[in-house]
Write a structure and sequence with these properties.
The protein is of the alpha/beta class. It has three domains: 199 residues, P-loop containing nucleotide triphosphate hydrolases (Rossmann fold, 3-Layer(aba) Sandwich); 164 residues, Rossmann fold (3-Layer(aba) Sandwich), CATH 3.40.50.300; 73 residues, no CATH class. It contains 20 helices and 22 strands. The strands form five sheets. It has a six-stranded mixed beta sheet, sandwiched between helices. A six-stranded mixed beta sheet has the order 16-19-20-13-21-22, with helices on both faces. The radius of gyration is 26 Å and the shape is globular.
Length: 547
């Protein structure tokens, strides 16, 4: 790292004054410093300013980021918003040194800096918390903290290190027992540990990539609230990638929006409405089309699962005796933090996992989720990670659309002779009806974007003339604003036609928006049930957290 000269140090201190007046006024009182301390001294203790100037990144002929500028003022909380594929992750990977920018400058305190690796970013006080946990489950909290240090000695003096770690933990915004094995931590505690790792490295600029995707609403508010306090106190600057407008408006000072790799707008969250931000994302002002739920007869019981038990892959019990009933024209939403048995329950109902006990009835008949039974009882599903669970990536879009019907007329004769012309014509029609963006029906489905893979599976599962039961798991995870709206509308329209829908989602907003009845799953059991109109958000959050 190049050391600044005395003149540059003066410039660095002066450059900290670029904080907006509102942000500075908000942050100074909470620093709790003596009145004799000058404003210049105060500003010199703020995190460095980070600025991107006309940054572009190309992969071959593909332009992932195109001439984007962004400024993270010292002691502020900045949100980075955009549709899936808008270039957000590529941009922050340029900041972290994972990618070398094709063009443009990364400035730290007004000076252009070469950041060619995460180690370089660390030298400038920049750290990143990734969407997925990077902790080592077999180690303790203390061991995971020492593991991230570049100067951890090969022979560790544990008494000395634990004394230092205890002092660090006492001064930190999050408190976690240092001796606890990672395997015993809840998701919220693991996310706190990911942040603590960066604070332990003395990161002053923290980049967060969808930091609340595995947290309950209460855990999300706690984590972001404590980080907000650190920002307000001038000890930290935060750049957060998020799709959640509520979190952006509640915790961020400013937002920058990307669209198709380009800068689409920026502003203060106090001055921008959710509609303004959505318009920047989509390129036009757009109101979400509301699908009105119609009155549907719910007298017919479609799914009746009784005392279902199922194990995880490691042999431990995941589903611990649940009972689930769904009637016609009803969306039953199962909320819960990842890892509480929802995935295993969906796999049992979809025929991907064998239940260890219990019985399932569909339309009054015993059901074991074979392909033949799914066809005869009109059971369809949109599983989590459809490219892995519901598609064959190297097969074409047309072939994937035909996986339900390839052995039946008009796409086959005698169940053996496949009629590829009929398969292709059916696919062309579904591509048009469901607005699947693909170069042709012959394109491998693995080449499509996540949203269009979802549309492909949805087209296949919803195009049947008769559907009784639709099983949907995290249907819009990681998708952009427009794809989310489209898929939600399709699910509600199926419900309005009398389809019984099971919706499993880790996004509580999605559950509350779509469901007629809400269940919460924790530790393999249903621990809460309520009509959505009577749902108690505080209680739902507590039950999701296992309280």
């Amino acid at each position: 790292m190049e050391k600044p000269s005395p003149d540059e140090i003066e410039g660095i201190a002066a450059s900290s004054s670029v904080v907006g007046e509102g942000s500075m006024k908000d942050s100074i009182p909470s620093l709790n410093v003596p009145s004799s301390v000058s404003a210049d001294t105060l500003r010199s203790h703020l995190p460095p300013e980070l600025e991107l100037v006309n940054v572009s990144k190309k992969f071959g002929s593909f332009v992932a980021v195109d001439n984007v500028s962004l400024k993270l003022a010292p002691g502020t909380f900045h949100a980075l918003l955009g549709e899936n594929g808008a270039g957000k992750s590529t941009l922050v990977k340029c900041i972290m040194g994972f990618h070398a920018a094709t063009h443009g400058d990364i400035l730290i305190d007004k000076r252009s800096r070469g950041i060619n690796s995460p180690r370089d970013a660390y030298q400038y006080g920049i750290g990143m918390v990734y969407q997925h946990f990077t902790v080592v489950p077999a180690m303790t909290v203390a061991e995971n903290l020492l593991l991230v240090r570049p100067d951890t000695p090969s022979l560790i003096n544990w008494k000395d290190e634990l004394d230092k770690l205890e002092a660090f933990m006492a001064a930190s915004p999050f408190k976690i027992d240092l001796n606890t094995p990672i395997s015993q931590l809840a998701a919220g505690q693991k996310q706190k540990l990911e942040i603590l790792k960066q604070l332990y490295l003395k990161s002053r600029i923290l980049i967060l990539d969808e930091p609340t995707s595995v947290l309950t609403p209460q855990e999300a508010d706690e984590v972001l609230g404590l980080l907000r306090d650190e920002v307000t106190a001038g000890r930290l600057s935060v750049l957060m990638i998020s799709h959640k407008f509520r979190e952006i408006t509640a915790f961020a000072d400013n937002v920058t929006v990307l669209r198709k790799g380009k800068f689409a707008g920026t502003g203060s969250t106090k001055d921008l409405s959710v509609s303004d931000m959505a318009a920047m994302m989509l390129g036009e002002a757009k109101e979400a089309r509301q699908v009105i739920k119609t009155e549907v007869s719910t007298n017919d019981l479609i799914l009746d699962a009784r005392n279902i038990h199922a194990d995880r892959d490691n042999g431990l019990e995941a589903v611990a005796g649940v009972n689930l009933q769904i009637k016609t024209g009803e969306i039953v939403g199962i909320a819960g933090v990842s890892g509480n048995g929802q995935r295993e329950l969906v796999e049992v109902l979809s025929g991907q996992r064998v239940a260890t006990a219990g019985e399932i009835f569909v339309n009054g008949d015993r059901y074991t989720a074979t392909r033949k039974e799914m066809y005869s009882h009109q059971v369809f599903s949109l599983p989590e990670e459809p490219l892995r669970n519901a598609c064959v990536p190297h097969m074409s879009v047309a072939e994937n659309l035909a996986l339900r019907t390839f052995d039946r007329p008009p796409q086959a004769k005698g169940g053996v002779l496949l009629l590829f012309k009929a398969i292709r014509e059916t696919a062309k029609n579904l591509i048009k009806v469901f607005s699947i963006k693909t170069p042709s029906p012959d394109t491998p489905v693995g080449n499509l974007s996540g949203g269009n893979v979802q549309r492909t599976v949805l087209a296949r599962e919803l195009s049947a003339s008769q559907i009784k039961l639709l099983i949907v798991a995290n249907p819009v995870f990681g998708l952009d604003f427009a794809a989310v709206e489209y898929i939600h509308n399709q699910i509600v329209e199926a419900r309005n036609r009398g389809v019984a829908v099971l919706l499993v989602s880790e996004d509580l907003d999605e559950i509350l928006t779509l469901s007629d009845r809400i269940l919460v799953m924790s530790d393999g059991k249903f621990v809460y049930e309520s009509p959505s109109s009577e749902a108690d958000l505080a209680e739902i959050g507590q039950k999701m957290a296992g309280h």
